[in-house]
Amino acid sequence: MMTNELDEESVGCESQAEKTGVINEVESESGTPLNYCDICGKSFSRIGNLNRHKRTTHRGEKPYRCDICGKAYYEACDVRRHRRIHTGEKAYHCDVCGKSFTDNGALINHKRCHSGEKPYCCTICGKSFARSSGLASHKFIHSGKKPHQCDICGKSFYKTEHVTIHMRVHTGEKPYSCDICGRSFSNSSNVPKHKRLHAAEKPFRCDTCGEAFSEHKELTTHKQIHEEEKPFKCEICGKEFTEKDIFITHKFSHTVEKQYRCDICGSSFPERRKLTAHKIIHTGKKRYPCDICGQSFAQSGTLTTHKRVHTGEKPFRCNICGKSYSQNKGLICHKRIHTGERPYKCDVCDKSFMQSSYLKFHKYIHTGEKPFQCDICGQSFNHSNTLTMHKRTHTGEKPHRCDVCGKCFACTSALTVHKRTHTGEKPHRCDVCGKSFSERRDLTSHKRIHTGEKPFSCDTCGKSFSHRCTVALHQRLHTGEKPYRCDVCGSLFSQCSHLITHKRLHTGEKPYRCNICGKSFNRKNALTSHKRIHTGEKPFDCDICGKSFSHTGSLNVHKRIHTGEKPHRCDICGKSFCEKRELTRHTRIHTGEKPYLCKVCGKSFNCTSHLSRHRRVHTGEKPHHCDTCDKSFASTSLLTRHKIVHTGEKPFHCDTCGKSFTRKRTLTYHVCIKVKK
């Protein structure tokens, strides 16, 4: 019986509160209030509301106390409502979805979710709200007033509950926890959002494209892509934005007055809270320790971000491409890739950047400043991160480990690129030919194939190159420098990659395998060229005769037929060659070097083609077939010689008597006889 009385009183109290909100709204616009407070002058439509106002606001009376936790309230109905937190009682049920509530007012507000009713309308902009409190808070946007202030850092808020939540930043209080993983939160609304990560639940679906989201605000932002709506406009430059946080960040790129100055180092900040956070740097106080690794932080927000390193959580998701980030500022910077926005401009050369830090370090190019010096070798750098990575060349430290193959790296960017070898991800796509690359720098280099740009030139011979590193390697032709030595045979090389490839001759390693025919290669570019045999692709055309080639090297060598160029000269006998490999093979005539060894009989050869041909003596392989008689041969030269039998061709002519022969050696023998006579 007691419960029913409490319910009736509670309903009456809550209904009255709802009614009061509506009446105050109406009468404040259309009627003259009858009851005035003689202390502050505020007016009320009902005498009961005036009395309550005096008792609570001016006298601070809270006569109704909870007998369980001792918390005090202005109204008896507030105590009854509060007690349900302890009892867990939710007596008010929604007849649409079945959800339960502790008080009738909450149920009435909830039902408006189903009905779509928004009875509280703003008289300035016309926006409607389901609750009177929502309208009251909204009106502060027009007035610019934030009446509720944090007495620790001075930050202001529209609502008192926002101050309560904000205060937990200072106290570290996190009263709401996830019952699955135990993680705690300062705001109750974050718990259901977090739980969706466990359930992989995405209840908010776009009715245009069908993409689903775990949070309603993500869906709202996503919908602006379809609507092309950009509701946030910069009043300084007129630029429009789809999201508020990107808009706020953009505004700081203009000249903003920084009125809060640090009295220790002189740094200025646009907000008091940022100054307060900054001052902790000078005190050295780090009162927020990580309970996983023990590392301490000066700010609770930094600790929260740090913990995502351990949990792997990336709650900030790009609604365009789906990429996730552990920090909101990472997402903001990433989105500029899609929008093309570069709000930070260099006042020297007008170059623009996506991040202020990029602009800062760019300016060192103009000033020549390199403020970060290595205390081991004295080398200076214009970026602290570059110095950190450089120091690892001295220490050998490689802290970033691939969790797939265990390989370690000195920097995160190298690990990120490496991981793409496992995933096959190639996020950087050429907009000309559609080819994709795992690294941005590879795409930049590739684009020069289309543009023909060769911005790097050799200061000795003037030859131009599309890559800076290629110039450095080319210059070793002039200097003769070969810093890389094979510890097996002593051969010297101008490039490290050439030494690595060479060593595979000794080990027999062929790590690059064709997935079509199974053939293996010791060089990646050899595999790439080989695959064109299967595809028939010949992307490189001669602009003189139109002949096509499967790779650039073959095209460059072919062009020398037209130009007559033979750039590779033997410094022993002076003979010149079109190709470097021809010179290398020729040089072995002088040195007697035969680096290619047959593992069956031990015989050595000066080039791989001779070794391959020799191996067929042991294997009996004859891969070259005559299409006239089906006879097979071990080499192309033997097949060519055989074909003369069918054609009757005698291509070798004696200049003295005009006699012709099918074989060169027969002609040589014929000439010798003539000379002897």
Automatic annotation (TrEMBL):
Highest taxon of source: Eukaryota
Coiled coil residues, start to end: none
UniProt similarity note: Belongs to the krueppel C2H2-type zinc-finger protein family.
Function of the protein: May be involved in transcriptional regulation.
Key word Lipid metabolism present: no
GO cellular component, one term: nucleus
Organism field: Octopus vulgaris
PANTHER family: PROTEIN ESCARGOT, ZINC FINGER PROTEIN
Localization of this protein: Nucleus
C2H2-type domain: residues covered: 35-63, 64-91, 92-119, 120-147, 148-175, 176-203, 204-231, 232-259, 260-287, 288-315, 316-343, 344-371, 372-399, 400-427, 428-455, 456-483, 484-511, 512-539, 540-567, 568-595, 596-623, 624-651, 652-677
GO terms classed as biological process: positive regulation of DNA-templated transcription
Listed GO MF terms: DNA-binding transcription factor activity, RNA polymerase II-specific; RNA polymerase II cis-regulatory region sequence-specific DNA binding; zinc ion binding
Name of the featured protein: Finger 271-like
Keyword set, alphabetical order: DNA-binding, Isopeptide bond, Metal-binding, Nucleus, Repeat, Transcription, Transcription regulation, Ubl conjugation, Zinc, Zinc-finger
